[in-house]
Design brief:
Chain lengths: 570, 570
């Protein structure tokens, strides 16, 4: 069956290999819900399933059950989901993972790739709306973003991880014959090279965008032979619980041990993260989450290796533009997108104190700031658009932070836009907020010099355009940053920005406006995170993301020379 | 000139790519001094040069000079070399490295590979005997081993690192065009992908085998755009000082900043290692040395990444043999080779208590131990053979350890062979010792359960063959181990050994006897270190050894569509 799966999915896999090599646009999946086969039916079934799951135990048979946990609250209803998930004894999960590993590690590369391609296809065909609904009611994403960003795009990132893993593994041949003279003797050795998985991988998924990072991490570990223990954020368990359940089913169908993938759930009151990272059997940690805990993980995981994505200040530098309104519209849209609860959302806008150059002359900084505020404000004033763009606020802590930053912003700058709830047209109890926008000066690094998670933006006055670039890239180097956006009509300035951001390690987008979200990161094409600044140490997905998840062990012995060869020489 | 170098060395580089892919036997270099062009002349010049260098300052122009250091003592004469090397201010070296990096990072892959291939060729053609002589009189290797192991084989490991680095870098295209519809709009982006070096690499070289690990590490870092600060062991500076001087010359000839490679020297009294590892500009650490400091480096280098090779217990399991004398001869030779001062030297022999099966019947354990002792003893009794095989003892501490272990061995087992100096035929004052061989029981892990650096071996009685394998691989997992050797005529036992050593992460050699040293690791073919046990975390040389030395930063912007294309569509 598993060989069948490899052959079945091989055309898609080979097409994905092309895409990774060429880095052009491609996906085997319908990018929009409207293009999905019987989307309405699938969505209706997902909603029925979700309604039926609420208030009920989640059926996940895995070993070591010691109780139940569940504290999810829908950002759209602000009511508990009431789903009770199995709480597992950690040591039992590790032991089960260790026992499951040898047969999976011994399987061929084709077998493992086939099983994991089947998983992704199964998630797409049978569980996409179920997962999208789960993401919506845990992370607070809009239905469209949950479908695209947490659904098909995340599946694409998963395939991409498989392509990279396969490439790294194929670089090692299965065997070789080696022959050399030593003195008068000829030594002929047959060598076999075995790819050995590093060991149990712990995958931390984050609260606001669980699948997009976790799926490629899980697939990178599994493709290279490692079992995975998934540690969802207690606020967003359901998407990962569904993933784990489907993966376990597919593994069993393929004849492998379901315990290659299990879920280790904890609670906000009693977090398990440190225990999982420092468990004596942990060999790989994939971490998406806060910079603070991420730093701890990076420092304390040894001997496990760590692949992290944390957070930083994503920066925008406005030097000169052709169409200021188009640029501000694009910025406003992107700063509103999912209430800036994405690791790629822009937060800090650095502008020359004198203003931004346009074909109609210099537009003063205050005016640019006001027009940006107006563009953002107009989104918050249209409930349907706000619902589509801003969606909901994942955590009540973000509302606290908004209050706190509004006060700090008033003290260290000027509040251009104060946050307020907007009325969600479909969910009247939704936890929502329009963005906070503060105008300040580059000296106020205490205000803007870290990720302020949520719909919070800063317009930062700098001495001039060169100073804006210097300040922005210095902030990225010091505080981290994943994405960066530069607007300039001056090719010399653009070249300087490309150099400065390359050194700072942020993925740069230049002069983009229009309907594509500025922070959209395309699988197979865009590298996500550079590892060059504090915002994370790993990239989705390059060879470095996969090559150290397995090791190479060899065995060599004197060759038994073929009798027919010996005959021909006599 | 640099483009010329790439073209000039391209056939050799492409041949090396084939060898890495096929992992067969290949080298562009003369494996034996006798095959080297005008070897006698080259050797004479090297010896004259060495004699002239003794007692004199070493000419190495590098920035930040704050004094001179030099404490090398030749193991062959036990006299100080009297060479004074420049001692540098560390911060100055880091600053100089940072300044040197951008132009090197901006060079094409071809340019960097060309420069580094030229370096290796230059080392071979102009400095091979100079380096071999330096290795001999610092590490204590025999002339032949210094030529082969520390010379041509190390050069081959260097080329191998370049091949892997090139493969990892080529996996990322320089640019792509990406096109996708968003709503009714078509977004066309041109993307460029830039490979950005991680930053300053610190390369620790060890005392007994400095070039073999350091050269591939340095070349892996340099190929991917990083500057390197070399930290030689204070006892073995000369080989690395020559390397650094030649590299700086070649870099300057190619138009680059010499400070891409500098040397940070310290003394035994005032070691610099921790400061170098934790310097705020350190981004990569390559470490070869003790398990104890290696563990510290692995734990404390963050945010720098670490590639380590430390030490462990290399194990031998004797189950059954066809020709016991041939096997014991091969083991004796390999245990004597360079007085077992190699990270690959076997140390622990695990035997069934009942003895070893042979075609002539079971040979009791005591007899096997005695015959092994006799085979080792016979080497020590022939001064010419002893000089060729045992060579000299690098450090006086090893003689202390031999005394201490002899006492411990007598207490926890039986001393089969007591160490004693042998008379070196060429250097009457050479620091030498024949091996210590102790017979003991598997319960005495306090005796044998760690690397005992130097010519020290243990014959360990186990319950039976299965128990011997279990104990040996458990020891590798717990204490580390790079190589392993199994002798068995039972294919079931061999298969079990392959599985067990694959899990333990030691590179296995089966049923080998004859003239090839059992622990010979061939460039392009043998992987060295697995990273699966405490003996090191990196392998020479796989993609994981190179892929994270650089990062990928991208820049994307709306495409300017070609006018001719626009014309053809109107």
């Amino acid at each position: 069956m598993t060989q069948h799966w490899y052959e079945q999915h091989r055309p898609r896999f080979e097409r994905a290999q092309d895409a990774c090599r060429e880095r052009h646009c491609w996906s085997p999946f319908a990018e929009m819900p409207g293009l999905y086969p019987d989307a309405a039916g699938a969505q209706a079934r997902a909603q029925q399933g979700f309604a039926a799951q609420r208030g009920r135990p989640f059926a996940l048979e895995q070993p070591g059950r010691i109780g139940s946990l569940g504290e999810e609250v829908s950002p759209y209803t602000q009511e508990p989901l009431g789903i009770a998930y199995p709480q597992a004894d950690i040591d039992t999960l590790f032991d089960a993972a260790e026992r499951a590993m040898p047969a999976w590690a011994a399987a061929s590369i084709e077998t493992r790739i086939g099983v994991l391609m089947e998983l992704l296809d199964r998630l797409y065909r049978e569980h996409l709306f179920e997962i999208a609904t789960a993401v919506m009611h845990t992370a607070g994403q809009s239905a469209n973003m949950a479908y695209a960003g947490s659904g098909v795009n995340a599946l694409d990132r998963g395939i991409e991880a498989l392509v990279q893993a396969e490439q790294a593994m194929r670089a090692v041949p299965a065997q070789a014959r080696w022959q050399r003279g030593f003195g008068s003797a000829e030594i002929v050795l047959d060598k076999t090279y075995r790819l050995v998985p590093r060991g149990v991988a712990v995958c931390f998924a984050c609260a606001s965008f669980p699948t997009w990072n976790a799926w490629p991490s899980m697939l990178a570990s599994l493709a290279t032979g490692n079992p995975v223990i998934v540690k969802p954020h207690p606020a967003s368990v359901l998407p990962m619980a569904i993933t784990v359940r489907v993966l376990r089913q597919v593994l069993v169908e393929a004849g492998f041990d379901a315990n290659l993938v299990t879920m280790a759930l904890d609670s906000t009151a009693e977090p398990l993260g440190k225990r999982l990272v420092q468990h004596p059997l942990t060999r790989i940690v994939d971490f998406t989450g806060s910079a603070r805990f991420g730093q701890w993980v990076e420092r304390h995981a040894h001997p496990a290796i760590v692949f992290s994505e944390t957070s930083g200040c994503n920066t925008v530098v406005l030097e000169s533009v052709v169409d200021l309104d188009a640029v501000l519209r694009a910025l406003a849209t992107t700063m509103c997108l999912f209430s800036a609860q994405m690791c790629t959302s822009p937060q800090n806008l650095y502008l020359p104190r004198a203003g931004v150059r346009t074909p109609a002359g210099l537009v003063p900084l205050d005016e640019v700031a006001q027009r940006l505020a107006a563009a953002i404000d107009s989104i918050g004033r249209e409930p349907r658009r706000a619902a589509m763009l801003l969606a909901a606020i994942q955590s009540p802590q973000t509302l606290d932070l908004l209050r706190q930053m509004t006060a700090q912003g008033a003290a260290a700058g000027r509040v251009l836009l104060a946050p307020r709830p907007y009325a969600h047209p479909e969910f009247p109890n939704a936890r929502t907020s329009t963005p906070l926008l503060v105008q300040t000066d580059k000296t106020q690094r205490g205000l803007y010099g870290q990720e302020r998670f949520g719909p919070i933006g800063f317009v930062i006055a700098c001495d001039d355009a060169a100073d804006a670039l210097t300040q922005a890239t210095a902030d990225v180097r010091e505080f981290g940053g994943l994405t960066a956006f530069v607007y300039s009509q001056d090719e010399t300035f653009i070249a300087a920005a490309e150099d400065a951001y390359a050194r700072a390690g942020a993925q740069l987008t230049i002069n983009l406006s229009g309907p594509m979200p500025l922070n959209f990161a395309a699988a197979y094409s865009d590298f996500h995170v550079t590892g060059l600044n504090p915002a994370g140490n790993a990239s989705l997905t390059d060879l470095a993301f996969v090559a150290s998840r397995f090791r190479i062990v060899q065995s060599r012995r004197p060759a038994v020379l073929q009798p027919e060869l010996q005959e021909t020489t006599t």
